[in-house]
Amino acid sequence: MISSPDLCRIVYGVDFSGARDAGRKIWIAHGIIEEDVLLIRGCFRAKDLGNSTRDRDQSLKALREYISNQKGGVFGLDFPFGIPRCLVKEKSWEQFVFSFEDTYFAPEEFRAVCRLRTNGKELKRFTDSEARTPFSPYNLRLHRQTYFGIRDLLGPLIKDNRVCVLPMQKPLPDRPWVLEVCPASTLRRQHLSLPYKGRGEIRKTARVKILEGIEKTGVMKITEPSLPSKIFENKGGDALDSVIAAFAAFRALRNGFIFDGNCPYTVEGWVYV
After folding, report:
1. 3 in a domain, yes or no?
2. Is 217 inside a domain boundary?
3. Residue numbers of the domain that contains 154
4. Could you tell me if residue 5 is inside a domain?
5. Nearest-10 crossing angle of helices 201-215, 238-255
6. What is the pTM assigned to this prediction?
7. How many domains does the chain have?
8. Contacts of 38 (CB under 8 A, 6+ apart)
9. Structure confidence by residue, pLDDT tens digits, 244-265
10. Cα–Cα distance for residue pair 271/68, rounded to 1 Å
């Protein structure tokens, strides 16, 4: 356990996407910590980053630069950082990430190989069972996020030693800290699991209830007056997911981080909820 976590760090939540137009679908929320409360100051799309576009390659490049430049940042990213241990031939998580691009040449191949090796079963990681995440990392609905998240975001960042990915790597004070989160699991933990993605007043009302429910915990507040409306009007729920991701990352920061080289999550990854 890391004692006395650095509560001066800025917290970010990233709702990730592996779609072709990822720059439009990825949302980033950010906030500062004051008196042990996360104050959310903004929320925007990845295409609005410097040198970014809607295109996946360009927007992920811009996101890598943005993350690496936030030296005091803690980032909650909502895609799987690993796969079940039985599918990993490497001895460490870092080796797994370094070899990922050469092992799987496309997201479709990644999913097909994993399914082939598990006789068509979609296995979950130890942390998926603990956090009660909805899907296996190579599920049809999630495999593209896993693939592009590991290959195009985490891979280049850790190869250049620009971030610390917890809990597989030890946190260093001069680098951004990156954590895997799952908004669906966080909402379940908060008893706020409501259908909130989509059009219509019912889904919009659900987004309102969820944000209000999180604020009622007393550890997160929206401080920008125009921001709630921006979050509620985003029909896909991606803006809200980025706020939930920031909330989960902040709670992990407050609680400290577990690091034990003998546990399965040091190869598979760990979801902070």
Report:
1. no
2. yes
3. 10-272
4. no
5. 20
6. 0.94
7. 1
8. 11, 31, 32, 219, 220, 221, 246, 247, 250
9. 999 999 999 988 776 555 566 8
10. 21
